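seq:
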Amino acid sequence: MSDEHHPDVLGDPWRAETIELADDFEGEVVATLVSRRAARTDGAGAASRGTGTWATLHVHGFAEYFFQVEYGEWWLERGHDMYALDLRKYGRSLRAHQSATYVADLSDYFEELDAAWERITVRDGHEHVVLSGHSTGGLVVALWAHERRPAQLAGLVLNSPWLDLQGSRLLRSLPVTVLVDQLGRRRPLQEVSRDVSGLYGRSLHREHDGEWDFDLQWKPITSYPVRVGWLAAVRRGHRQLQAGLDIPVPALVLSSDRSTTPQGMDEDVHTSDIVLDVQQIRRWATAVGSHVTYAAVPGAIHDVVLSRLGPRRRAYGEIRRWLDAYVAPRDI
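struct:
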């Protein structure tokens, strides 16, 4: 595995390193660990840089990659070195020969999470790490934390985690679940038919109706194909979580206060979750562990830290209160 850092696409002082993973059925597989060190002060109060004991590791959602610089800077301002992992076949880690976003089991991601964690804790010396995940990444990190239970894990932040399949109750029925499992084994790369409006992506990108800049090749406006084998893997992850996880640290679950299904670029697109059903997030939040705080953020969108300024500030306020109360001492 490579430990060589190189300048990241986000620009200095963000750095990236490629993590070589075991080959899969398509060939070479890599993940990418993005990082930035927090500014610190020496004994005389002068600014300095160095390895602290606190860090945050973030994992993105489906059809995206790490570009949430403001979110990273929020943690940096609190003395956490910031790390973010582009999972295999996403963003910085996507290779030309690969089926974007595809894995046959969510536990496949444990290899890069293990490798990233070793670098953060053993190589870089961080003793306390807050693990963060958005949407599908929220499901993945929760399953990993339940399985691995690393000693350095200090807290878990789940930003609109995908905890159940949205849409009609029929889609979550036993017959459909069995069918998806069977198709996932027989024709794993078959695409699932779905209608993608592109409204969510347009609401985010600054060249459309949003304020954020990101690579439209790595986060397409109309998403990536969903494949049956991948969907079957997600549904197995949902069942495992819904049976109850035992994550031994405080967890914070954030979401919008409502979900909508707009047909055009209206105000709901900018003030609600149009991707997942927040009622499901509320229902299953406590399945994460025994110490869960849930906060609904009025006016937030699916990725709460990409919401408009007011809801975004409120989301950061929720994270700060949770962090101060349950995770980190105030003098770090």
